[in-house]
Write a structure and sequence with these properties.
The protein is mainly α. 46% of the residues lie in helices and 6% in strands. The strands form 3 sheets. A two-stranded antiparallel sheet has the order 1-4. A two-stranded antiparallel sheet has the order 2-3. A two-stranded antiparallel ribbon has the order 5-6. The structure holds zinc ion (ZN).
């Protein structure tokens, strides 16, 4: 391996760069890498667009951050940049069955630098496949680069965290909570893992007996979507928070459950005095409340709301009934 004499090291982590500073950093990186490698900036730009899947100009800030990561990687390991043949791009394997109806990714590449998944916030090591989902419509925000689990498997082989994220983003956008049969199974298993679930404070306030019956039906009939109310979704979160904490396990789940409960409470009480005349009381209000959190949580750091629907836009599930959260 040949190390360049002049490495490209941005002044800030690519995760925190934005706006003109980010655009400037991409250009600085291209200039530095081209000069150190002894090739033209045009060739660096072409290879960069190939690796990221889009030019820095046409892409969004998530793409430009990925471009910075790629330039940092090339500045230390120029072999793939200097090779005449372009490196192979990853090939995806989408799951079959009910959950295969996730929208097809917009582009995929390799993680070339340590990064964080734009949905579940898991660390993604260099060499792993990462990808972007298509640009969402309406009020949804684009997710960053996603890990393999979030790109392909979160609905076919969901973890509890995948389902909790789903609940959060449905509440964020003000819709009922749509779960497929795999996700219903995860929720049911998580609740039934603790015999004390029905003794929790949250269950006593809002019993989940009827919800459990609906979850079992969804699993038995392999339903594509079972709609739960926001209230039931939040009771599930509160019950799991009590039972998982009681078992002393599931550090990541506890952090996520805490973050959901914190933000839902903030949306209810408006502690940061978000002005209704500027931001209304719906999605923009909830976004602004998230922006003003004094200390970022795993959810506020990534933003939203994110479109986690199963079907392509325009299909029956996308037209989910909307109702106010609170
Ligand atoms: Zn992820």
């Amino acid at each position: 391996m040949t190390l360049f004499d002049v490495g490209f090291r941005p002044q800030a982590s690519p995760d925190t760069l934005r706006g003109t500073a980010l655009i400037r950093t991409v250009q600085e990186g291209i200039t530095t890498v081209a000069s150190a490698a002894g090739i033209s900036e045009t060739r660096v730009r072409e290879r960069l667009a190939y690796m990221v899947g889009i030019t820095a100009e046409a892409g969004d800030e998530h793409d430009r951050r990925q471009a910075v990561r790629q330039l940092m990687a090339w500045s230390l390991e120029p072999a793939s940049l200097l090779a005449r043949k372009k490196p192979r791009k990853p090939v995806s394997q989408r799951p079959k069955g009910v959950a295969c109806r996730l929208p097809r990714h917009a582009r995929v590449t390799w993680a070339c630098h340590q990064m964080v998944c734009g949905l579940c916030a898991d660390p993604v090591p260099p060499g792993e496949l990462v990808g972007r989902m298509p640009t969402p419509a309406f009020y949804y925000q684009p997710m960053g680069w996603l890990c393999t689990q979030c790109l392909y498997l979160r609905r076919a082989q969901p973890r509890l965290r995948d389902v909790l994220l789903r609940i959060f983003h449905h509440v964020f956008v003000g819709s009922g909570i749509g779960l497929n049969c795999y996700e219903c199974a995860v929720v049911l298993r998580s609740i039934e893992a603790d015999l004390a679930a029905s003794n929790t404070v949250a269950w006593k306030i809002d019993p989940l007996d009827g919800v459990l019956i609906r979850l079992r039906t969804s699993i038995r009939e392999e339903k594509h979507t079972t709609w739960l109310s926001v209230a039931d979704g939040l009771t599930i979160v509160a019950v799991l928070r009590e039972t998982i904490a009681g078992r002393g396990s599931g550090e990541q789940e506890i952090a996520l459950l805490d973050a959901i409960m914190q933000h839902v409470e903030e949306w209810r009480t408006n502690p940061y005095r978000v002005e209704a005349r500027r931001f209304g009381t719906g999605i923009r209000y909830r976004q602004e409340t998230l922006n003003r959190v004094p200390r970022d949580t795993v959810l506020s750091a990534l933003g939203g709301p994110f479109d986690l629907h199963q079907c392509e836009p325009g299909s029956e599930v996308s037209s989910a009934p909307m109702d106010q959260v609170m």
